[in-house]
Design goal:
With about 300 residues, the chain is an all-alpha fold. About 75% of the residues lie in helices and about 5% in strands. Mean pLDDT is about 85; it is low at about 1-5.
């Protein structure tokens, strides 16, 4: 390719979710409501877990970190989307696009690692209750969180740096509602084989092992629950895992549907719908799921409201 014919892209145009002018105001109100509920719900989770000494346990330590990550992830995307709906300004600078991509990948990766640590925590609680306090001591919990944040930042950094080396000479129009990885790869006029190899390596070394640790943890958990003789014992054991299992299922199902497709089979419309699910809807549902299905959180919330 003749390098002289390549024009450096200084900004991108994000098409958003709809070009219909009549839908902009309703979409603005819907996503503003989702964003406010997400912020409020996750802040409530963080507040009650910090305020109630009974929730100073590994499970709620991980849950508060998950809530913080969800706030950060949705805040990376939703404010710009709301601006598109409100003002019609669909432009984003090249640097802004790369920053958005980096933090989206980072917080998405942190979410995955936290969900894995939560699965291991539930495995230790159900399958090794007598040794639980030794297995999941404070030092181990902090190290797991630090490792989750560091691994996510490093892996997303390598991917983002690779994207910055691509050339975008044909078009600067992103057919999405934020700077996601797959739409950017489709937009590039440079060979993206190197990035695909990098994604495969990182998925092989990090993402898939995290998924299989989560899956294996629940295989052992379900096996242990089935060995419990009393129905009440089974119900109590499963209630400690049901909320996390629901969140994990939604998270991995939507993520895998988007990122495990080949570039040729990638459906833009399907990708946008699934992206809405895991970038805006899931962070809103997580605190609701944990609050509605968890008596300890409900009791802590009542105490905080009472004070």
């Amino acid at each position: 390719m003749d390098l002289e014919n390549i024009t450096m892209v200084t900004e991108f145009i994000i098409l958003g979710l709809s070009d219909n002018p009549q839908l902009q105001d309703p979409l603005f109100l819907v996503f503003l409501l989702i964003y406010l509920i997400t912020l409020l719900g996750n802040l409530v989770i963080i507040t009650v877990t910090c305020a109630d000494p009974h929730l100073h346990t590994p499970m709620y330590f991980f849950l508060s970190n998950l809530s913080l990550t969800d706030i950060c992830c949705t805040s990376t995307i939703t404010p710009k989307l709301l601006r598109i709906f409100f003002s019609g300004d669909k432009t984003i600078s090249y640097a802004g696009c790369m920053i958005q991509l980096y933090f989206f990948l980072s917080f998405g990766g942190i979410d995955a690692f936290i969900l894995t640590t939560m699965a291991y925590d539930r495995y230790a609680a159900v399958c090794n209750p007598l040794r639980y306090s030794l297995i999941m001591n404070q030092r181990v919990c902090v190290l797991l969180m630090v490792a989750s944040w560091l691994m996510a930042y490093l892996t997303s950094g390598t991917i983002t740096i690779s994207v910055t080396r691509l050339s975008f000479c044909a078009s600067n129009v992103i057919n999405h509602f934020f700077c996601d990885l797959m739409p950017l790869l489709k937009l590039s006029c440079t060979d993206t084989a190197g990035i695909k190899i990098l994604l495969f390596v990182e998925a092989t070394l990090l993402t898939m092992p995290a998924f299989f640790v989560t899956l294996l943890s629940y295989v052992f958990i379900i096996s242990a629950i089935l060995r419990i003789r009393s129905a009440e014992g089974k119900r109590k054991a499963f209630s400690t895992c049901s909320s996390h299992l629901t969140v994990v299922s939604v998270f991995y199902l939507s993520m895998f549907c988007v990122y495990l497709q080949s570039n040729s089979s990638y459906s833009q419309g399907q990708g946008i719908i699934l992206s809405v699910l895991y970038t805006t809807v899931t962070p809103m549902l997580n605190p609701i799921i944990y609050s509605l299905r968890n008596k300890e959180v409900k009791n802590a919330l009542r105490k905080v409201i009472g004070k």
